[in-house]
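fyi for ur records
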Amino acid sequence: MEQKTNPNQYKSDLKPIWCPGCGDFAVLSSLTKSFAELELPTKDVAVISGIGCSSRLPAYLSTYGYHTIHGRALCVASGLKVARDDITVVAVGGDGDGFSIGGNHFIHTCRKNINMTYIVMDNSVYGMTKGQASPTTSPDWLGSKLTPHGSGVPAFQPMRMALASGASFVARAFSGNPKHLTEIITKGIQHKGFSFIHVVSPCVTWRPEQKEYKNFIKEGFGNGPTDDHKQARQNLLDDDGFRIGILYQTRSPILDKMGVEKCSIDKIGTQFSI
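which gave:
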C-alpha cells in the first residue's frame, strides 16, 4: 500500500545527539514511519519519556511530547491517555529508566491495560551516566568499574514481567531490523490495550560487544503470536532475549476515564493466571 504521509513531517528541527551507531536512531525513524503509515495528525499524538539517552526522543519529534522525571513516564502517559482517550499516546524510555526506578509503574500499567504503547530501548547499560550495569545486564558482565566482578544479580526479564502483569500485547523487535521494527510499532499502536514493545537497541559506546547482536537475532516465538496466556509463557521458556516478533496479543478489559470496561470475573481470572 502506498504511503501517503511523509514520515519527515513528524520530525522536529532538532538533530539527535546520540552516539554514532546507537540503536535509538532506528527507533526514532521507525516511530515516525509508523505514525505516517497510520496517517496520524501530529496534533493528535503525544510521546512521553523519562530520563536517559533514549528518553531524549520526544524532542526530536514534531508531535506533542513531555520529557518527565526519572522512571515516571508511564505515570504521566497513563494520566494523559485516561483524560484524553481521543489521542495516541506513546511512552518511550530505556531499561534503566523503565525497569529500575520505573519498575513498579511498569508492572501496574501492564495490569491496568490502558490503551497506549510503551517502547523500551534496551541496551543493558546506563549509557548516559557512563556505563553502569542496569536491571537487564547479565550478572557476569565485567564492563563497569562499579561492578568489576559482575553485578551478581540475575537480569530482569521484561517480556516475562509484562506477560505476568497483564499486558495484552507483548512483543520484541531489533533496532538493526528497521522494517520489522516499524511493523511491530504500527501493530502495537493499533492494538486496543496496553502494548509493550521490548526493543533490543545496542549501545556501541559502552557495550561494543553488542555490535554482534545482529548475529544472534531469531524471528518468531513458537508458532507465532498467540492469545493463549499459557502458550505464551511456554514460548518464553526457550527465549534467550534475541527472539523478535509478537509473543502475545489478546483482547482484555481496558482502564479508561469511565473505569474498567465490563468483563466477567471468570474471563479476567483465566486471562491473567500465572
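The first strand starts at residue 45 and ends at 49. thats all i got for now
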